[in-house]
């Protein structure tokens, strides 16, 4: 019985340890220009690639907004529920080779993600090479 309880406790603690050292989970997006929280994005894995979907919008007045500036299948879709991070692959400690959508402007950028500690995520969107872009720091939602 003691061994079973010990193994169970070890398994649970390793699951939490693994989750905190991963980009998977819920993240509060912070606008790099204003410093204000904008939304909650859930980052998940599907078929070995990383995706991120807006699951909550902080500003109550913007909760029902649609992506009027987007093109393709995202055009005029509700921002809530929109998949904004698509197809990232793990490359060492970073995730790259995917795209990120800015629902405010409708523009898509190349993207990479990197953990900064356990509870901060550096999200960089760029055009061409990563030198031409901007970085936001998102905070893990506990």
TrEMBL record:
Residues 25-140 form the DUF2147 domain. It comes from the Bacteria. Transmembrane segments: none annotated. It holds the Pfam family DUF2147. Gene3D superfamilies: 2.40.128.520. PANTHER family: BLL5882 PROTEIN, BLR1215 PROTEIN. This is DUF2147 domain-containing protein.
